[in-house]
Amino acid sequence: MAGPTDLALTRPPSLAPLLARGALLSPFKRPGPDAEFPRTRLVLPGLRVDLARLAAYERVCGFPTGENALPVTYPHVLGFPLAMRLMSGRDFPLPLLGLVHTSVTVTRHARMPASDAYELSVYIEGLAPHRRGTQATVVTEVRGGRDVVWESRSTYLARHRTHHLGGTARETEARKPLPEVAEWRLAGDVGRRYGAASGDRNPIHLHPLTARLFGFPRAIAHGMWTVARCLAAHGVPESCHLRAEFRAPVLLPGTVTYAARDGRFELRGREDRIHATGDVYPV
């Protein structure tokens, strides 16, 4: 099968109209692993980082501020508007409403100065059956010059009835819980602060009233915030590979436990419920 066709952009897409379009089209989507999906790679050359937004992101996630270097998770924020343009379109078969970010893997090949210009590209790699529905994989790549300096794969799950029997429930890990490092009390405005810094103003993250419309008792933290906060506390090698899975939502306000050992980390809630888990190591 031929690879995606490049479509060059002149500016990052605006997120608000994309989220609105995706919400309006969601009831008409017919998700399934065999559905057609966009075969376009969106490319944004000459991208420069808004340093004020970067500083706001660093503060809400706990990264050091004022350094001429992008946090390892920040390119995901840069690529998110392009991913939303693809996933909010008529030709994307999964409904944007209710789409769940289930995992992310990142490889950073080199230090990324915040003052440099980059080329950003995003495309949908494919769809796959999942025991709870259909999962899409979105690939983001960042180039500095001709070289890929950062790349990621994010999986997004649309839940629907399925006859897929190829997988069982998530394997229960036999590993012992990681040792506690810190307890974090999360304010109710974390979702709003992260939304302002990242541009991801999904209503489930902003206010209890809007979160209740989607079945949550309170606002929930962004999954990428939970991972970024863990990595800010853990520390990340300059060239690294990381993997994280989002297991359960973090309600805001709330209290969570950050635990880590060697290259592994996790975020736990009450009764040791796992919210996020992952690992990071040098490459």
From TrEMBL:
Q: Mind telling me which SUPFAM superfamilies this protein's record contains?
A: Thioesterase/thiol ester dehydrase-isomerase
Report the leader peptide range.
Answer: none
Q: Which InterPro entries does its entry note?
A: HotDog_dom_sf (IPR029069), MaoC-like_dom (IPR002539)
User: Where in this chain does the record put each MaoC-like domain?
Assistant: 192-257
Tell me the Pfam families matching this sequence. MaoC_dehydratas
| Gene3D superfamilies the record matches | Hotdog Thioesterase
The entry sums up its family as follows: Belongs to the enoyl-CoA hydratase/isomerase family.
Name used for this protein in its record: Dehydratase
Identify the species of origin.
Streptomyces variegatus
